[in-house]
Write a sequence for this structure.
């Protein structure tokens, strides 16, 4: 829950009203398990103190872990109360937690000089591995080399009675439309286009494609990667994986792992019909699928 906590603290610090804080806390609480958090926090801090005993100094490990639990529990209690949240009460707690996390024994700042040295030596280390183990196929470093994956558009049935098709449409997004919700609200102009089925040349059988799934092996950092068909034509942009395939970094199973990409027709629709930037379309060479 580390990243979730830091995200929550950031939202609380930026909140401009009690309503903003209320929303941030309630949304966090929906995915929060106090039992899991207590166990993982204690285990991770104990591991950190065992590896870096100097972090403890004269302090007691149990006392430190207890202090962390007390800080976060105070915020969680606010998330489940029915009454409005007092911004004057929450802000100091959020600030204190953030300062502790980033400025004290809760966070370990790596030495930049060592990191720089390790980076410089990584290429030499890889060359040595290739020389010593010539029969082994080493994966390229996707941070500094081109990473290419292949697959095909195909749905998947990850479990009993659950089936995902290859394509989602604007109809599905509209079915989730929830006015005022930060995730499921819709711009009025997009709603109007949907009501009038005004999709221009980008529709498929009267519906507007939004996303596709395919059996490509993707990983962290692949968001925004171009997706090409067999003719080298841009058909989408990768941005996610289905929930059932998040283990693919460890074990890629093409039977259930699917990457998610926004359909290029939806991108073109947004540029052209929604944003009215026809001049950008004029600079592109479009082909019919």
């Amino acid at each position: 829950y580390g990243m979730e906590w830091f995200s929550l603290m950031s939202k609380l610090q930026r909140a401009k009203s009690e309503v903003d804080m209320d929303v941030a806390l309630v949304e966090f609480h929906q995915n929060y398990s106090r039992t899991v958090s207590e166990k993982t926090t204690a285990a991770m801090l104990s591991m950190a103190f065992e590896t870096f005993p100097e972090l403890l100094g004269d302090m007691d490990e149990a006392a430190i872990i207890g202090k962390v639990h007390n800080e976060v529990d105070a915020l969680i209690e606010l998330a489940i109360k029915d009454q409005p949240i007092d911004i004057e009460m929450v802000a100091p707690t959020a600030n204190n937690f953030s300062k502790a996390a980033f400025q004290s024994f809760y966070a370990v700042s790596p030495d930049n000089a060592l990191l720089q040295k390790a980076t410089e030596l990584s290429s030499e280390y890889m060359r040595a591995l290739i020389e010593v183990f010539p029969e082994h196929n080493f994966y390229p470093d996707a941070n500094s080399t081109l990473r290419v994956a292949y697959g095909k558009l195909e749905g998947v049935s990850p479990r009993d009675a659950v089936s995902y098709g290859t394509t989602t449409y604007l109809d599905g997004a509209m079915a989730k439309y929830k006015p005022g919700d930060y995730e499921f609200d819709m711009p009025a102009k997009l709603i109007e286009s949907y009501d009038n089925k005004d999709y221009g040349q980008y529709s498929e059988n009267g519906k507007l494609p939004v996303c596709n799934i395919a059996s490509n092996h993707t990983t962290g950092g692949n968001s925004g990667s171009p997706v090409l068909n067999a003719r080298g034509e841009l058909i989408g942009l990768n941005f996610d994986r289905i929930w059932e395939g998040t283990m693919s970094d460890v074990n890629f199973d093409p039977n259930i792992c699917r990457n998610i990409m926004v359909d290029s027709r939806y991108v073109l629709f947004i540029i052209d019909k929604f944003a009215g930037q026809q001049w950008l379309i004029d600079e592109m060479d479009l082909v019919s699928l």
Notes: The chain has ten helices and seven strands. Residues 79-85, 101-109 have pLDDT under 50 and may be disordered. The longest strand covers residues 234-241. The first helix runs from residue 2 to 14.
